[in-house]
Amino acid sequence: MLLLGAVLLLLALPSHGQENSEAPEVLPIPKGACAGWMAGIPGHPGHNGTPGRDGRDGSPGEKGEKGDPGFAGPKGDTGETGVTGVEGPRGFPGIPGRKGEPGESAYVYRSAFSVGLETRVTIPNVPIRFTKIFYNQQSHYDGTTGKFYCNIPGLYYFSYHITVYLKDVKVSLYKKDKAVLFTYDQFQDKNVDQASGSVLLYLEKGDQVWLQVYGDGENNGVYADNVHDSTFTGFLLYHDIE
C-alpha cells in the first residue's frame, strides 16, 4: 500500500525545470485495496492503430534548372499545299545591267542584178549574153561575158524566165564550169511558150554563175523581141560572216 502511494506521488510531481506556483495534486489511494498489493506483469503491446489521414499538400518548391534538350523526333508527314496568297505590291525597279558587247556591224551587204535578152541570136554551149540591164548597181554582172561574179561570199538566189519560140529549148545554169540546173521546154507549133527555173546557191568570192543553151542548135529556141522577154536575175540573201 505504501509503495503504490509513493508511485502516485511521483507522477503528480512537476518535471525538472518546470516552475509551477500551484501545489501538487495528490491522487487518492483506491478504496478497498489490499495491504499487500503488488504491481502486475506488463501486458503485451497493443496492435498498431489505423493509418492517419494524408496531410495537406506542402507549399510549391523552387523552380528547378532547365533540363537537357530531348532527342529529335521523326519527321512528320508533308502537309497539304496551302491556298495561294494575295499578290504582293510591285517591287522597286532593279539596278540596270552592264552594257552588252558590241554587236555585228550594221553595214548592209548588197549584191543583185536583173538583166534581159535583147536579141534572139544565141550560141549553144557558151554563156548567153543578157545585155538589157534592169538592175546592176553593184556591177557584179558583166554584160560582155554574160556571167555573174561573186564579190561577197554567202547564199544567193538565182532565177530565169525564157520565152520559147520556133524551136525547143534546153538551158542550164552553171556554177564554176559545172551545170547545176537544167530546164527543157518543147516548142508547140504556132505558139509562144515559157520556160523557167530557180535555185539557191552558196557562193564563195570569185565564183561565177551564168546561163547557156545546152546541147546542139536544135534546142536553141530562146527568144526575145519588143513584147517578149527572156530574163536572168540573182541576188544575195545573206552574206557569210566568217
From TrEMBL:
Residues covered by region (Disordered): 38-99
Pfam family membership, one: C1q
Subcellular location, record wording: Secreted
Domain C1q, residue spans: 106-242
Keyword Signal: yes
Ranges in a coiled coil: none
Gene Ontology MF term list: hormone activity; protein homodimerization activity; protein serine/threonine kinase activator activity; sialic acid binding
GO biological processes: adiponectin-activated signaling pathway; brown fat cell differentiation; cellular response to insulin stimulus; cellular response to xenobiotic stimulus; detection of oxidative stress; fatty acid beta-oxidation; gene expression; glucose homeostasis
GO cellular component: cell surface; collagen trimer; endoplasmic reticulum; extracellular space
Compositional bias segments (type: Basic and acidic residues): 53-68
InterPro entries listed in its UniProt record: C1q_dom (IPR001073), Collagen (IPR008160), Collagen/C1q_domain (IPR050392), Tumour_necrosis_fac-like_dom (IPR008983)
Residues annotated as signal peptide: 1-17
Keywords: Collagen, Secreted, Signal
Alphabetized SMART domains for the sequence: C1Q
Protein name as catalogued: Adiponectin
The keyword Secreted is annotated on this UniProt entry: yes
